[in-house]
Design goal:
The structure holds 2 protein chains of 2 kinds. Chain A is of the alpha/beta class. Chain A has helices at 5-14, 69-85, 100-107, 138-147, 172-183, 203-212, 227-234, 295-298, 301-311, 329-337, 340-347, 397-406, 413-416; strands at 24-28, 31-35, 56-59, 89-91, 115-118, 132-135, 149-153, 157-163, 190-194, 221-223, 254-259, 266-268, 277-279, 290-293, 321-324, 350-351, 372-375, 391-394. In chain A, helix 5 (172-183) links the parallel strand 8 and strand 9. In chain A, helix 9 (301-311) packs parallel to helix 12. Chain A starts with a helix and ends with a helix. Classes of the chains: A alpha/beta, B alpha/beta. The interface between A and B is large, with 47 and 49 residues. The structure holds iron/sulfur cluster (SF4). Residues 62, 99, 101, 120, 122, 295-296, 356, 359-360, 377-378 of chain A line the site of iron/sulfur cluster (SF4). The site of iron/sulfur cluster has 12 residues of chain A, from helix 8.
């Protein structure tokens, strides 16, 4: 019987001929990423041995630069760990730093067919690179760093066939909100993205879909490889790889078509990402206190340049805090070079350093009582970005930027047609 | 996992306790909110459901059992399962468990079971009897019974071993807890 992309990699990495939904398999892990939260004084258990230091990546991203003594202590522990085991792929605060999932893209850390683990739930982001990437628990990361292995339970796969081309001012975030709104959670299942519409999406746009798949509660999110993907990886990582294609007779739980050309800007209302998407018109006019562009899903060069196009020559509405967070120092340098940062600054945006920051309600944009935020980040759960009484709406960077200008949730097509 | 030889096999895990009930899609931000991140594990436990059910954590007694809806524990990879364990809950039974949350239940040796039909089989305050290994749940108050899905054997072995850190510590691969 044919296999999906996820099943094929699970089989290859567990040394089996086939893997079917329901199987629990032990697999070899190619890349293990640790980040600052792993090293927090109340989380860290000192590792005495690692399987292979060259398979480990360390970054500080959730709380950077350190906003508290605990966060600073975590970084001290992390640096000592890096030194002790001679870990080369270390992204300390400075030139190479970034949100782990963005670093995977910046440096080509995820090769097609490989297995990548990090104890952050949006690790499925790396699935854009035709690999198996999963967010696991902190102890899973410690185990994988030490033993070079982990376990996975294979689930069924839902395939999304993307066709057509996104209209102006409509983005991959809207495509995601469409899927999440109509189909809801995909717990215990994998999602696989393919179809003729993928070619029209930049790698950054595809990465929005793979990262946001965490919100579908998907086990793995995978994309098929194409020439653009191979070129992206080869430009950043000289290691050889072989793309994994699904078998023609692969068995899917469902195959669903998404016509990108038919989409419009969407917004998720507060407290749930899934089954909560509406045309932006439903929320238009809702007053906001904060507009946020950033996160592992929407802090790329594409996202920030799109925001700059919306606000160019205009000013952020009085009373609105417009916070823009490039997802990595590489992205930051790119958007400075392209002029987008200057445009955003002139409009009145605050540019934060690459960090998870406000996305997780940690720092750099935490919400107060009853405040309303429109975010392009990943989650709108109750209390996610601050006080439990605050409300978080979610939309594309274009919609967030347009709304920052007016002070109320706004259809971005007004500014981009 | 391949090497669970240190696991204490065949340790039966049976629980009896009063049940608490929550709904579908309970997320990890509700179980372990950001504002508790820097606290001790014991303090963190008191923040469980502080946003959606303030004051609840204080009412939980050791040995109580939590019943949840579908996709319980959706969201982040934070050690939310550890908080439920530290709160004194004996176990969790849900319609379905989020995959990442289930990993953390195994990681921290917090017994969690998937049992379709469980949410409507109990009213809060009733008593449940759980045979974890066999995935059997009884509503003692009503005298009814349900069968859940037993944890796959290698994962069960990890739970019985006391979780991942216990295992690694025994093998001398991580330092003893300070
Ligand atoms: S940006 Fe947000 S979703 Fe992404 S890794 Fe950071 S906290 Fe998680």
């Amino acid at each position: 019987m044919g296999m999906t992309i996820a099943e094929k990699i699970l089989a290859a990495k567990s040394g089996r001929k086939t893997v079917v939904p329901g199987d629990v398999v032990t697999v070899d892990v190619d890349t293990v990423i640790l980040f600052d939260n792993n090293f927090m004084p109340n989380n860290w258990r000192e590792i005495l041995k690692v399987a292979d230091p060259s398979k480990i990546v360390v970054t500080f991203d959730h709380r950077v630069p350190a906003p508290t003594q605990q966060a600073a202590a975590a970084q001290v522990t992390g640096r000592a760990f890096v030194k002790q085991f001679g870990i080369k792929r270390f992204h300390d605060v400075g030139h190479n730093q970034g949100i782990s999932h963005q670093l995977v893209a910046d440096y080509g850390y995820a090769l097609p067919g490989s297995v990548l683990l990090c104890s952050d739930s949006h690790t499925c982001s790396a699935g854009v690179f035709n690999c198996l990437a999963r967010g696991v628990g902190g102890p899973d990361i410690v185990y994988a760093a030490i033993k070079g292995q982990t376990w996975f339970r294979c689930g069924e796969t839902v395939r999304y066939e993307l066709v057509g081309k996104l209209p102006e001012a409509v983005t991959a975030k809207d495509a995601f909100l469409q899927i999440a709104g109509v189909h809801g959670e995909h717990a215990t299942m994998n999602v696989e993205y393919g179809g003729s519409g993928v070619a029209g999406l930049s790698i950054n746009a595809r990465k929005t879909l793979s990262a946001m798949s965490a919100e579908l509660s998907a086990e793995f999110a995978t994309f098929e490889a194409d020439a653009a993907l191979v070129e992206w990886i080869s430009a950043r990582n000289p290691a050889p790889f072989v793309p994994v294609t699904p078998d023609a007779d692969a068995k899917y739980h469902a195959v669903r078509k998404v016509d990108l050309a038919a989409l419009e800007p969407l917004v998720a209302l507060p407290d749930s990402v899934v089954r909560n998407s509406h045309p932006v018109s439903k929320a238009v006019g809702t007053r906001i206190d904060q507009a946020y562009i950033g996160s592992c899903a929407n802090g790329t060069q594409d996202d920030i340049e799109l925001a700059a196009r919306v606000v160019k020559g205009r000013r952020v509405a009085p009373g609105v805090r417009f916070i823009v967070t490039p997802a990595s120092q590489t992205v930051y340098r790119d958007v400075v070079a392209s002029g987008a940062v200057q445009v955003l600054l002139e409009a009145g945006a605050m540019i934060a350093p690459p960090t998870c920051g406000a996305c997780g309600g940690g720092h750099m944009g935490v919400l107060g009582p009853n405040e309303v935020c429109l975010t392009s980040s990943t989650r709108n759960f109750k209390g996610r970005m601050g006080d439990p009484s605050s409300q978080v709406y979610m939309a594309s960077p274009a919609t967030v930027a347009a709304s920052a200008l007016t002070g109320v949730i706004t259809d971005p097509r007004e500014f981009l047609q | 996992m391949t090497d669970t030889k240190n696991a204490v096999m065949n340790k039966t895990m049976n629980f009896k306790g009063r049940v608490w009930i929550v709904g579908d899609n309970i997320n990890t931000d509700l179980i372990l909110p950001n504002k508790a991140f820097y606290l001790t594990h014991e303090e963190q436990a008191l923040y469980v459901f502080s946003a959606n059910r303030p004051g609840w954590a204080e009412q939980v007694k050791k040995g109580d059992i939590l019943i949840g809806g579908s996709n319980f524990g959706m969201g982040s990879s934070r050690a939310a399962a550890r908080s439920l364990k530290n709160l004194g809950l004996a176990c969790l039974i849900a319609e379905s468990l989020n995959g990442l949350f289930m990993r953390n239940c195994v990681n921290f040796a917090f017994p969690a079971l998937e049992c379709p039909g469980i949410h409507d089989a109990f009213t809060e305050g009733e008593a449940a009897e759980v045979e974890f290994d066999a995935a059997q749940v009884r509503n003692v108050t009503r005298g009814t019974a349900l069968s859940g899905k037993p944890l796959p054997a290698p994962l069960m072995a990890l739970v019985q071993a006391g979780g991942v850190y216990q295992l690694l510590e025994k093998e001398g691969l991580i330092a003893p807890k300070v």
